[in-house]
């Protein structure tokens, strides 16, 4: 039995739009296959549920843009854009490939509209860093709101990406390939 559990939007009270299952990502093409699902390590899943619960009374919803990313996908992303400021070198391994990281943004729960975060997801620019003040004040507030929700739910953050959160001590979890999912594989 593998350590990953499926994350279903209705079970967690959040939205899921896996960017790498669509061409709407920095590579311009799908990285995951058409059967890709949202998965997290069994120890990370309750932290995501807690963050979604904290957002709900504020009229907000989390939208997951990426979660478990097989090592094979990390290699594909790195082959396209080997930028260590924004992508983990697959030789070291990504926290996504351990199933203990999630990329996400915030939505207005009533309208489903994304909140302004100052940059797009996966914008490989210094403006994507946390604590940037060269973005509109509303976007700064939204980033800090996401940071607060995720931190209160037990997540750590990556300073270069406002959208990336991971479990504390993430390196202790093993790297996982697509084969861990068996028939329910992420890669095409």
TrEMBL record:
Provide the GO MF annotations for this entry: D-Ala-D-Ala dipeptidase activity; metallopeptidase activity; zinc ion binding
Could you name the active-site residues? 161 (proton donor/acceptor)
Q: What is the free-text note on the cofactor?
A: Binds 1 zinc ion per subunit.
What's the protein called, per UniProt? D-alanyl-D-alanine dipeptidase
Pfam families, A to Z: Peptidase_M15
Q: Which GO terms describe its biological process?
A: cell wall organization; proteolysis
What this protein needs as a cofactor is: Zn(2+)
Sorted alphabetically, the keyword list is: Cell wall biogenesis/degradation, Dipeptidase, Hydrolase, Metal-binding, Metalloprotease, Protease, Zinc
Q: Which InterPro entries match?
A: A_A_dipeptidase (IPR000755), Zn_M74/Hedgehog-like (IPR009045)
Q: What is its EC number?
A: 3.4.13.22
Q: Which reaction does it catalyse?
A: D-alanyl-D-alanine + H2O = 2 D-alanine
Give binding positions for Zn(2+).
96, 103, 164
Site positions (Transition state stabilizer) = 69
UniProt xrefs under Gene3D superfamilies: 3.30.1380.10
By sequence similarity, the record places it as follows: Belongs to the peptidase M15D family.
Keyword Methyltransferase appears in the UniProt entry: no
What this chain does, per the entry, is described as: Catalyzes hydrolysis of the D-alanyl-D-alanine dipeptide.
């Amino acid at each position: 039995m593998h350590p990953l559990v499926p994350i279903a939007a209705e079970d967690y009270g959040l939205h899921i739009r896996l960017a790498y299952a669509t061409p709407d990502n920095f590579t311009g093409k799908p990285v995951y296959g058409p059967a890709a699902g949202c998965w997290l390590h069994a120890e990370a899943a309750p932290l995501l549920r807690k963050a979604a619960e904290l957002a709900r009374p504020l009229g907000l919803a989390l939208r997951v843009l990426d979660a478990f990313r097989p090592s094979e996908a990390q290699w594909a992303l790195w082959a396209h854009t080997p930028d260590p400021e924004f992508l983990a070198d697959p030789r070291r391994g990504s926290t996504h490939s351990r199933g203990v990281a999630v990329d996400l943004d915030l939505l207005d729960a009533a309208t489903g509209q994304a909140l302004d975060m100052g940059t797009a997801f996966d914008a490989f620019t210094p403006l994507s860093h946390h604590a940037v003040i060269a973005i509109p004040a509303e976007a700064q507030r939204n980033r800090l709101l996401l940071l607060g929700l995720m931190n209160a739910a037990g997540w750590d953050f990556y300073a270069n990406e406002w959208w990336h959160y991971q479990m504390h001590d993430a390196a202790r979890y093993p790297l996982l390939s697509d084969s861990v999912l068996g028939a329910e594989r992420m890669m095409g």
